[in-house]
Amino acid sequence: MGKLVVLTLLGAGLALIGERFVKLRQRTNAFREVEPVEPHNCHLIEGVENGSEDIDILPSGLAFISSGLKYPGMPSFAPDEPGQIFMMDLNEQNPRVQALAISDGFDKASFNPHGISTFIDKDHTVYLYVVNHPHMESTVEVFKFEEQQRSLVHLKTIEHELLKSVNDIVVLGPEQFYATRDHYFTNFLSLLEVIMELHWTYVLFYSPSKVNVVARGFISANGITISPDKKYIYVADVADKNIHVMKIHANWDLTRLKVVQLDTLVDNLTVDPDTGDVLAGCHPNAMKLILYNPEDPPGSEVLRIQNVLSEKPRISTEYANNGSVLQASTVASVYKRKLLIGTIYHKALYCEL
Ligand SMILES: *[C@@H]1O[C@H](CO)[C@@H](O)[C@H](O)[C@H]1NC(C)=O
Ligand SMILES: *[C@@H]1O[C@H](CO)[C@@H](O)[C@H](O)[C@H]1NC(C)=O
Ligand SMILES: *[C@@H]1O[C@H](CO)[C@@H](O)[C@H](O)[C@H]1NC(C)=O
Ligand SMILES: [Ca+2]
Ligand SMILES: [Ca+2]
């Protein structure tokens, strides 16, 4: 009798593992191949080779690019080099990148930049907020941008017990931001969250006087951005392959209005300032992303979502590549029909639309 129970439990256990494994293959789009879509005028950006995880463009056309992310479970082509912030002026005929100098007094050796967000104060000062993972911790670094010197002056490091496993932020005001947490566990158990589809990650509101969770129920909350009218927040759940549209209340709480389901793993989100369309940097096949094989590399995909607030948002493919040109896209940002596409650990692409 005892043996029968053990065998039954073993069988049930194996069935569960098998079911979870099949689910994980589906969830990561392990079988998906990419059909190429490319605007006419695209070229790789010289000088960006080791990632361009996040991109934020100022209304003036100056683009900030976060580069050199080292992230648990992801390959890095430059594991021993600190991360950098690049700048590109999209008003130039042939824009080139330039690494921004960072002021002394900041630990540049452990700089590991992830999501970024810019904020322009009433006096026109530009601040760059950077999610940083020094020694795999999570902090938010506040820099002042000096346009003449092309440099970043470090002002402050923000840390908080709820600011763990931070992926991206969107700045709302001086020292006020929403941040996404992409994992609940900070150790090997984080793999379990995706396998078991635990919806345990969240969006956090941070201000010096108040810090609280404003939205829950994501398997892995990733990119976050705000609508041009500042009324809505868009949050990408990379593991659930969807985008959550949320309304912002006066007290900064969020209410979920809708979820736009996609067949790709959405990483970062930006908004086209001219149209209000949401641009999503996506991973078509996450298995290839994690089990990196240079012979069969992960591809890239950028989706444009028009009328995201309407009943039937229109979804089109702005760019898609099987990895022969661009691998592991995370973000796409547009300025006056110029498109920049960033990646976790690979290059960056510039296109004219
Ligand atoms: C990328 O990383 C490699 C290896 O560390 C390094 O040799 C190269 O200079 C880096 N390239 C850039 C553009 O940072
Ligand atoms: C883009 O996605 C990557 C990978 O998850 C993340 O590290 C980065 O912060 C994201 N960038 C933006 C612009 O949200
Ligand atoms: C990717 O596409 C290119 C051209 O479309 C093709 O030559 C190449 O074999 C493809 N690579 C893979 C890994 O499928
Ligand atoms: Ca961002
Ligand atoms: Ca992200």
From TrEMBL:
Positions of disulphide bridges: 42-351
Catalysed reactions, as listed in the record: an N-acyl-L-homoserine lactone + H2O = an N-acyl-L-homoserine + H(+); a phenyl acetate + H2O = a phenol + acetate + H(+)
KW Calcium (keyword) present: yes
Gene Ontology BP terms: response to toxic substance
Residue stretches spanning the membrane: none
GO cellular component: extracellular space
Active-site positions on this chain: 114
UniProt cofactor note: Binds 2 calcium ions per subunit.
Domain of life: Eukaryota
EC number per UniProt: 3.1.1.2
Ribosomal protein in keyword set: no
Subunit structure: Homotrimer.
The protein, known as: Paraoxonase
Record family assignment: Belongs to the paraoxonase family.
Keywords of this entry: Calcium, Disulfide bond, Glycoprotein, Hydrolase, Metal-binding, Signal
Residues the entry annotates as binding Ca(2+) 1: 53, 116, 167-168, 222, 267-268
SUPFAM superfamilies found in the cross-reference section: Calcium-dependent phosphotriesterase
UniProt function note: Capable of hydrolyzing lactones and a number of aromatic carboxylic acid esters.
Residues carrying sugar: 268, 322
GO molecular function, a single term: metal ion binding
Signal peptide: 1-15
Binding residues for Ca(2+) 2: 54
Name of one Pfam family that matches: Arylesterase
Post-translational modification: Glycosylated.
Cofactor(s) for this UniProt protein: Ca(2+)
